[in-house]
Amino acid sequence: MFELTVKGRRSEISDVFPGFEERDRLGLVMRRPCGAVGASTLILATVTAFYDIQRAKGEEFFVYPDYFLFHVGGSFGNHKMLDIFPAHKEVVVEDDPEELLRAINDRAVTRLLVEDVEPGDPTFERPTLASSRILTALAYSPRGRARDADVEVSGNATTEAYVSAVVDQSEEVDQGIRDDVWAGRRGLFEDGVPLETYRRLGIEEALGMLASPTFRQ
């Protein structure tokens, strides 16, 4: 269902998130309606890797990965079709970098996706920084293509059906915005499949992006 490359080389989730394991917690910060759609294929690939670990144990299981979306300043859609479930894993957070990092820390996020914006220079309290468990950070674009990308992830018709369901079920988002999100999504298709891109970040740079309101276009 997925194809991943890092610096142009065929890769796996463990290359994107070194040391990936079932106890990892993915978190994505979003500031735009249905913004997580821009990272949906990577989210689904990570969810699938989590379930692959469960299946490899050869036992029956009922579990959802502890993956979270942080909606900054308001609710920006319904993402349960990406296996962000139950609903309390879609966390509405005050638009303040300290509060945002505290929310990320409270959920022990280890792999963080942040919007591709110009980093700010926030000052975090020392205990907040000490509580961080972030091991890996990537920049994503709500439109699906980060600048200066070194990671690519493609899906297929099945994964796009889940993405379509997210847009359709996000009824709190204006229909015009949802139509625009889906139109932009169709622009990601190459050779018949959606292709998202990401840029790997240092942790300090990623934390700077929690503060900036300056969006890259």
CATH C-level label = Alpha Beta
Q: Per DSSP, what share of the residues sits in E-state strands of 2 or more residues?
A: 15-25%
Order of helices and strands: EEHEHEEHEHEEHHEEH
Number of helices: 7
Mean pLDDT metric? 93
Number of strands: 10
- State the end-to-end CA separation: 29 Å
Low-confidence stretches: none
The description of the largest β-sheet is: 10 strands, mixed
The computed structural class is alpha/beta
CA gyration radius, whole angstroms: 16 Å
CATH fold assignment: Rossmann fold
Shape: globular
Question: Could you provide a short overview of the structure?
Answer:
This protein has about 220 residues and is α/β, with parallel strands linked by helices. About 30% of the residues lie in helices and about 20% in strands. It has helices spanning about 15, 40-55, 95-105, 125-130, 155-170, 175-185, 205-210; strands spanning about 5, 10, 25-30, 70, 90-95, 110-115, 135-140, 150-155, 190, 195-200.
